[in-house]
Hints:
Pfam families: AAA_31. InterPro entries: AAA_dom, DNA_Partitioning_ATPase, P-loop_NTPase. 45% of the residues lie in helices and 16% in strands. By secondary structure, the protein is α/β, with parallel strands linked by helices. The longest helix is centred in the middle third of the chain and has 19 residues. The model has no long low-confidence stretch (mean pLDDT 95).
Amino acid sequence: MRLGVTNQKGGAGKTTTTLNVAGALNQRGHDVLVIDLDPQGHATEGLGFEDLYDDPDRDSLFDVLPDLDRMGDLEQLAVKHQEVDVVPSHERMINAEDELANVMKREERLDMLFKESDADQRWDYILVDCPPNLGVLTDNAIVATGNVLIPAQAKSTSIRAIELLFKQLRSIESAFGDVDEVGLVANEVGVDGEAEEMMEWFKDIFEDREDCEVFEIRKRVALQRAWNAGVSIFEHEEDCDMEEVYLDVAEHLEDYADD
């Protein structure tokens, strides 16, 4: 199964969601690939590969996506982490949208890379951590995966961002085929009235969508400490009650993939 983790609003918890859902899938026995499509490289940093981000000698998606002759090179970009395989970002990815601007089928390059590299045969789950915008790279992730998991803050400022994302998804559907919202992960949920109202709004918006669920992640210091250690919460030394929620997300994805 391929999954894009996307919300153009900064601070929504995209990378935390990506890494811990990937860790949960690994805990449940799956081979997982995490692709850091964000030029800022947060997932790359969160998995302990900061040194690869600015390595001038390392090829990245910046080199491969514009080049039709390299559509079979996905596995060459992947590196091993103790929990998952990772395609790290690179500082050159800042210019990736410009590189893709004038190529043929610019929104389909990641999908072509997956197909030509037999990615679905190599990994059970491919999670793409998207940039915090609705540009060409995010379009590539959505077209390539056809499934999105939406992280969001339980704050009223999330409403407009989600409405804009829905418009983008429907626009992509009209050109490239169905896109399914498989779930929403509300991050750092507090105990205030605004958070309660937003959780109700999320449920009203998402739970009437077929096979879509809403998950609630409370703010826990252990999640940040796991990030600092370069692992998911499942490989971190501290116990955390949010592990069960991420495992619930993983189980939901399994059920979704089996349907």
